[in-house]
Amino acid sequence: MAMNSSVNEFILLGLTQDPRKQKAIFGVFLMFYLATLLGNFLIVVTIKRSRTLGSPMYFFLFYLSFADACFSTTTAPRLIVDAISQQKTISYNECMTQVFSAHFFGCMEIFVLILMALDRYVAICKPLRYTTILNRHVCSVLVILGWVGSCIHSSAQIFLALRLPFCGPNVIDHYFCDLQPLLKLACMDTYVINLLVVTNSGAICMVSFIILLISYITILYSLRNYSAEGRRKALSTCTSHFIVVVLFFGPCIFIYTRPATTFPVDKVVAVFYTIGTPLLNPLIYTLRNGEVKIAMKMLWCSKV
């Protein structure tokens, strides 16, 4: 896979070099990762098996949970293993694969969050036409377009990464391979490539966040005509969605919309959107959603 590189492997420094802190990181993030897999697995299986969760919102939530589990899997296992490993190396090919996978599933999560905002907009602003506008065929096409868009984005990222020549330092001050820390190691002028990264990843994050912000403002404005009970239910659902949006897009915008500079705090910020958000999504969508909780109880209690 290497195109312009004499470097066959990289060394990932991880979150810290302190042996005692590394043991704590191993234990904490192992629990976080297992909880992420369990929570998202429960949502995926519950939505798939439940007859009461057939609305478009849960159709999109199914794919959000799937993307969350995959997105976390691209980074968390490497962080956990490296925390107790003496040799924290990753091959060039594995590094490029991680770049592609992280951007693919991260971008898919962005597109699904936009679709979930669209679902709430149609449900609240056009309730009588909700099932007509967002029928199963339309939802499936939208998700497929999300997969295609994610593939295009991640392919562009890997194309830029493969063009970077590495001929000297191979120590990455991060816990996973991403373009920003790789740009720092490249033995070439990376100004143009960094502009392309900001144009690609930065624009997707910023534009998507603005679209989501406008959609939720529109939804809140539309709620003025609802009854108190209707406003309460709509606000409960939209609040949980907006919490996810802020937790995910805040760190992403901080990382991907600035010039080619890296800070020590970057890898801590990255934890929020690579590990934190996939962990919190199942909690937010189940604890604040009575239908999901009831469906889970009916499905899993009947199997005990």
Secondary structure elements and their pairing?
Layout: E1 9-12, H1 19-49, H2 56-83, E2 89-91, H3 92-125, H4 130-133, H5 136-162, E3 171-172, H6 179-185, H7 191-222, H8 228-256, H9 266-287, H10 290-301
Parallel strand pairs: 1-3
Antiparallel strand pairs: 1-2
Helix pairs in contact: 1-2, 1-9, 1-10, 2-3, 2-9, 3-5, 3-7, 3-8, 5-7, 7-8, 8-9
Task: Provide an overview of this structure.
The chain is an all-alpha fold and 304 residues long. The protein is built from ten helices and three strands. The protein has helices at residues 19-49, 56-83, 92-125, 130-133, 136-162, 179-185, 191-222, 228-256, 266-287, 290-301, and strands at residues 9-12, 89-91, 171-172. It has a three-stranded mixed sheet.
What descriptors fit this protein?
3% strand; mainly alpha; 304 residues; 3-stranded mixed β-sheet
Tell me briefly what this model is.
The chain has helices spanning 19-49, 56-83, 92-125, 130-133, 136-162, 179-185, 191-222, 228-256, 266-287, 290-301; strands at 9-12, 89-91, 171-172.
